[in-house]
Design goal:
With 527 residues, the protein is α/β, with parallel strands linked by helices. It has 5 domains: 93 residues, no CATH class; 37 residues, no CATH class; 110 residues, Ribonuclease H-like superfamily/Ribonuclease H (Nucleotidyltransferase, domain 5, 2-Layer Sandwich); 95 residues, no CATH class; 115 residues, no CATH class. It has 20 helices and 12 strands. The longest helix is centred in the middle third of the chain and has 18 residues. The protein is elongated.
Length: 527
């Protein structure tokens, strides 16, 4: 029995029975002395005996109950305030506990891993009958570990209630484990916590101004390190705004070539006002705006953002956003019977042969029995004429997201097709070519840890860059020391971002209803 349950070494087992599905172990303490928990004095006089029933870890899936004949002793120390005390068996009993330390540790582990209802179901399968509330109480009662020396930490925010309430997670970057959760993300809370840990030398953070102010106030001697991922993310956002600003450069130039050997086709003299509605300037503009709106929507942009960027009225943007197909925004053609139905095959053959003059074709079908007007013939010929004179299809323009990826992705991760498209675009767009050079130079500074070259890059960006890149450079200047340290030192906030994702998982596991104290215990002590 002691081989199976090493924590029973301090007792003598009297008997083992199975009652239903429960294994009952009757035992009594070994030895004839105990030590007073208040004064530490040795006691030998027994005051009384009583029964303690302790739940233990299961054996073979069966619950285990240890029935101990515990003793109370007189404390013979003269100046001790305790006249009697109950003995505690090392490794088996704790004050006021109805479980062994091994059983308590098992319940705590289940609670940290699976929380309430799921933990209760799991513990039942493991032979430990415990309710969900008991599991949560066990998790909340876990004592906090001492933090100790933490020279390098990382801080970031996480959502307690997305868009409304946020907290702060603090991670020891040496052990990559969370050491504290703060109930908000204000500079005051961060500064207060940092004042209690003067040994901190480096703080890794994102670009949030509240954290910068909190570190300056609470740990003025610590080095602040801006995270490189956030720097690149902000740069990619500036590049995206630049690409949107120069959207007209994305479309490849059209080349007009003559294929009629000097003979003018009748369609070349058609009045633009007579073009079909489906291919008119209004329809073309409608298609372009519909594509632009839905491209920005696919990138997660809001109606207000799209309205400012394109620019369009919010009502117009909303109407384009609701239309899944651009044809829903164009007038539909009539489908009823027409006087030209029986002459349609003849007109189709004549247009295919190159004759698209409505007056000539009207005279021809009038001789065949047509009794309508020339205007009806012109309306019928509009889509046929447009298809006959349409220029050869050009390759589609790359999307804003695609071009942003070309400019911000590592060159060795681009396909040959992407590289060719990028080179062609940069050749016809000087503004995007300048943006590409600035992005490449910043990437070299970041990869090679050449933070000392940042000032030169900022100066060049202010002279040559787009408005979005100049705004990005101005933000770097406001946080120049932290950004320079982030581009020089090896520290980053990668471990912090991982724990933020883990917090999201724990929140979803608890259906978003966990109080802050329970979430804090699970984040700090689980895993």
């Amino acid at each position: 029995m002691r081989v199976l349950l090493p924590h029973l070494a301090g007792i003598d087992v009297v008997g083992v029975w199975r009652v239903g599905s429960t294994i009952r172990i009757e035992a009594r303490p070994r030895g004839d002395r105990a030590w007073c928990p208040r004064c530490g004095g040795e006691a030998a006089r027994v005051h009384s005996r009583y029964r303690r029933q302790l739940a233990d870890t299961a054996i073979g899936g069966h619950p285990v109950l240890i029935d101990v004949r515990a003793r109370r002793f007189f404390c013979d120390t003269t100046d001790c305030g305790a006249r009697t005390f109950a003995e505690q068996i090392a490794g088996l009993t704790e004050r006021w506990s109805r479980r062994t330390p091994a059983g308590t540790a098992m319940i705590e582990a289940i609670g940290l891993a699976a929380a309430g209802r799921a933990g209760a179901r799991l513990s039942g399968r493991l032979g430990v009958a415990v309710g969900r509330d008991t599991l949560l109480r066990a998790v909340r009662s876990i004592p906090d570990r001492p933090i100790g020396e933490v020279p390098v930490i990382g801080i970031d925010d996480f959502a307690l209630r997305r868009g409304h309430v946020y907290g702060t997670v603090v991670v020891d970057m040496k052990t990559r484990t969370p050491i504290e959760l703060l109930p908000d993300r204000t500079a005051g809370s961060v500064a207060t916590w940092l004042r209690g840990h003067p040994e901190i030398e480096v703080v890794c953070r994102d670009r949030a101004g509240a954290y910068a102010e909190g570190v300056r106030t609470g740990a003025p001697d610590a080095i602040q390190v801006a995270d490189r991922w956030h720097l690149w993310h902000n740069l990619a956002g500036a590049v995206e705004k630049t690409v949107i600003r120069h959207r007209a450069d994305l479309r490849p130039p059209t080349e007009t070539t003559s294929t009629n050997d000097g003979i003018d086709k009748p369609s070349a003299t058609i009045d633009p006002t007579e073009s079909g509605l489906a291919d008119s300037r209004l329809a073309t503009r409608t298609r372009e705006r519909h594509a632009a709106v839905h491209e920005l929507l696919s990138m997660g942009r809001t109606i207000s953002y799209i309205s400012r960027t394109l620019p369009l009225d919010r009502k117009t943007v909303r109407r384009f956003a609701r239309a899944a197909d651009v044809q829903d925004l164009l007038p539909t053609t009539r489908t009823g019977r027409s006087l030209l139905d029986e002459y349609a095959p003849y007109l189709g053959e004549r247009v295919a042969a190159g004759c698209v003059d409505a007056a000539v074709l009207t005279r021809e079908i009038t001789e065949l029995g047509y009794r309508g007007s020339a205007k009806t013939v012109r309306r019928f010929l509009q889509p046929l004429r447009a298809a006959h004179t349409a220029p050869p299809s050009m390759p589609a323009a790359p999307s804003v997201r695609q071009v942003t990826g070309w400019l911000t992705r590592r060159p060795d991760r681009l396909t040959d097709e992407d590289r060719a498209g990028r080179d062609a675009l940069l050749a016809r767009s000087p503004a995007l070519a300048t943006t590409g050079r600035l992005v490449r130079d910043f990437a070299e500074i970041m990869v090679d840890r050449r933070g000392h070259d940042l000032n030169a890059w900022i100066g060049r960006t202010r002279r040559e860059g787009s408005p979005a890149l100049r705004s990005f450079a101005a933000g770097l200047v406001r946080d120049l020391d932290a950004v320079t340290a982030g581009l020089t030192l090896p520290h980053s906030s990668g471990a912090v971002e991982g724990h933020v994702n883990r917090i999201k998982m724990l929140k979803r596991q608890m259906y978003g209803r966990a109080n802050f104290d329970l979430l804090r215990k699970r984040v700090i002590h689980a895993g």
